[in-house]
Specification:
- The protein is an alpha/beta fold and 454 residues long.
- The chain folds into 2 domains: 149 residues, Response regulator (Rossmann fold), CATH 3.40.50; 271 residues, tm_1862 like domain (pyruvate-formate lyase- activating enzyme, Alpha-Beta Horseshoe), CATH 3.80.30.20.
- 40% of the residues lie in helices and 17% in strands.
- The chain has 20 helices and 17 strands.
- The strands form 4 sheets. It has a 7-stranded parallel β-sheet with strand order 7-10-11-12-13-14-17.
- α10 packs across α11.
- The C terminus is likely disordered.
C-alpha cells in the first residue's frame, strides 16, 4: 500500500482577510516531488472538524501533519489564544487515527518544546519542512521511527518546488476577495525588536527565480482563477533589488492580475513604483510600526518617519493606496510621543492606517529581553498565553482612549483592528476583490457608518 500524507491547516483567522495556507501548498509540492501522494484539509475552508474523519478514512495516511500558523490574535484589544482549538483538533485526530502526528508551522516553530509537550505529538519540524517532511515520510514508510522528536531545519537555498494548491480550498478563499498567495523569497535581514521572521526563516534572503515567480502568478490566475495576488514575503522591497527583477519578469510575462505586498517604507523611488505599477502593483502594505522617530528607534526600525512620509507621497503620486500598520505603547512610548505620533499620522494622505496597542512578546526576540529589562515580564514566564508589552511610561488605558477619540468617525483610521472585519466582509460579499485599501479611502462616504469603529 502506498504511503500517503494528510496535512491539516488549523488556522481560522480571517482578519483582516482570509489567507490561503501557502506553507502547506509548498509542502505538498515537496512531497509530490519526493513521490508521495498527499492530501490537504483546511479547517477554515472545510467549516471545522466535521469532514476530517471522512478525509482520514478516505486517504488512510501514514502520517498526519498539523500546521499551526498562529498562537493568538496578536491584538491586545481582543486577545484570543488558539491552542485550545488545536488541542481539540489533536484529540479529534487521535480518536480517528493512530498514525504518527507531526507538528509544524510558524507558531510551532516559535515555541516547539512547549507546544510539543502540550499536544503530545510524535514529531515536530521547526522551520521550513520541504526537506525534513519528505525525509520523515521516507523513514516512517520504511518502518524506521526516528528517535529525535523535534527536527530542526537549516535555511537552505534549494527550497523551491512547484506549489500545489487544492482547488476546493482555493475556491473558498477566492470567494472572499479573489486572492491567492505567492512567495518570492524567504528570510529577513532586519532587526525589528518584536519580529520572529529572522528566527523562522533566517537572517539572509533566499530568492526564488523571478521568471518562476512570474510563471506562478500567471498559473494561479489561469488554473485557479485568482483575481488578485498577495506576495507574502517578510519585506517585498529587498535592498538587493530582487523585487524589481520580479516586476520586470511580470511585465515581460504580460501579467494583468493585480497584486499587493508588504513593503518597508524606505529605499523606494518613483521609478521603482512606476515599474511595479506596470507589473500589476495595486496597493501597498507598509510596516511603518512607529508614529515618530523615538518610537521607531525603540522598535529598532532603522528608518525615520520622514522616510515613511516620502514613500507615502511617492505612492500617492502613482495613485497607489497604502495601508500603514502601527503599534502604540511600545518601547519609549510616552504621552508626548503618542500625541506626536497621532499628529504625524494625519500627514499620511491616500492611506489607511491600522493601530495596534502593545506588543505581543515572543521568545527569541529583542522585545522579550527588553520586557525583562523593563521589569514588566519575568524571564521564567511562559509566553504561550498572549502577553503584551506596554511602555511603563504611559498608562495602557490612556493610549486606548486617546486613539479612539482621535480617530472617532474616521473611516480610514482603524482601531481596534478587529473593527475592520465587518467592512471587508461586506465589500467582499459584494464581489470586490483584493485587500480593498483603495475602497476604504476613495469610497469613504459611501461606506461611512456601516460599521461602528468604536
Amino acid at each position: 500500500m502506498a504511503f500517503e500524507c494528510l496535512l491539516v491547516s488549523t488556522n481560522r483567522v480571517v482578519t483582516p482577510f482570509p489567507v490561503y495556507p501557502l506553507g502547506v501548498a509548498h509542502l505538498l509540492g515537496a512531497l509530490a516531488e519526493a513521490g508521495y501522494q498527499s492530501f490537504h484539509y483546511d479547517l477554515l475552508a472545510e467549516g471545522g472538524l466535521g469532514g476530517l474523519a471522512e478525509m482520514i478514512e478516505f486517504c488512510k495516511p501514514g502520517l498526519i501533519g498539523l500546521s499551526i500558523r498562529n498562537l493568538d490574535t496578536v491584538d491586545s484589544t481582543a486577545p484570543e489564544a488558539f491552542m485550545e482549538g488545536v488541542l481539540e483538533t489533536v484529540a479529534f485526530i487521535r480518536r480517528h487515527s493512530k498514525v504518527p502526528l507531526v507538528l509544524g508551522g510558524p507558531a510551532f516553530s516559535i515555541m516547539p518544546e512547549i507546544i510539543m509537550d502540550l499536544l503530545q505529538a510524535d514529531y515536530g519540524i521547526v522551520g521550513e519542512g520541504e526537506k525534513l517532511l519528505p525525509w520523515l515520510a521516507a523513514e516512517l514508510s520504511a518502518g524506521r521511527k526516528p528517535s529525535q522528536k523535534i527536527l530542526r531545519s537549516k535555511p537552505a537555498e534549494t527550497i523551491w518546488h512547484k506549489v500545489v494548491y487544492d482547488q476546493k480550498i482555493a475556491d473558498h478563499y477566492l470567494a472572499w476577495g479573489g486572492m491567492l498567495n505567492i512567495q518570492t523569497k524567504r528570510g529577513c535581514p532586519y532587526r525589528c525588536s518584536y519580529c520572529s521572521y529572522p528566527v523562522l526563516e533566517g537572517k539572509a534572503y533566499r530568492f526564488r527565480e523571478p521568471q518562476e515567480v512570474a510563471a506562478e502568478v500567471m498559473r494561479v490566475g489561469a488554473e485557479y482563477g485568482a483575481k488578485c495576488i498577495f506576495f507574502t514575503d517578510s519585506v517585498f522591497n529587498d535592498r538587493q533589488g530582487h523585487y524589481l527583477e520580479v516586476a520586470e519578469a511580470l511585465v515581460r510575462a504580460g501579467n494583468q492580475t493585480p497584486w499587493c505586498a508588504y513593503f518597508r517604507p524606505q529605499n523606494l523611488t518613483a521609478a521603482d513604483l512606476r515599474l511595479m505599477k506596470r507589473a500589476g502593483l495595486a496597493a501597498m502594505e507598509l510596516g511603518t510600526d512607529g508614529g515618530c522617530n523615538t518610537t521607531l528607534a525603540g522598535l529598532q526600525k532603522d528608518f525615520t518617519f520622514d522616510d515613511v512620509l516620502r514613500v507615502n507621497e511617492l505612492a500617492a503620486e502613482q495613485d497607489l493606496a497604502c495601508a500603514h500598520f502601527l503599534i502604540f505603547g511600545g518601547p519609549d512610548e510616552t504621552r508626548k510621543t503618542l500625541a506626536e505620533g497621532l499628529a504625524n499620522i494625519e500627514k499620511l494622505k491616500n492611506s489607511v492606517v491600522f493601530a495596534f496597542t502593545g506588543i505581543r512578546v515572543l521568545p527569541g526576540t529583542a522585545m522579550h529581553q527588553r520586557a525583562i529589562e523593563d521589569g514588566v515580564l519575568s524571564a521564567e514566564q511562559s509566553l504561550l498565553e498572549p502577553f503584551f508589552y506596554f511602555s511603563p511610561h504611559i498608562d495602557e488605558q490612556e493610549i486606548d482612549l486617546t486613539i479612539r477619540q482621535a480617530w472617532r468617525g474616521k473611516f480610514d483610521r482603524i482601531y481596534p483592528p478587529a473593527a475592520l472585519q465587518g467592512r471587508v466582509t461586506l465589500m467582499h460579499s459584494k464581489g470586490h476583490v483584493g485587500p480593498l485599501w483603495d475602497m476604504l479611502i476613495s469610497r469613504r462616504q459611501k461606506y461611512d457608518g456601516v460599521v461602528n469603529i468604536t
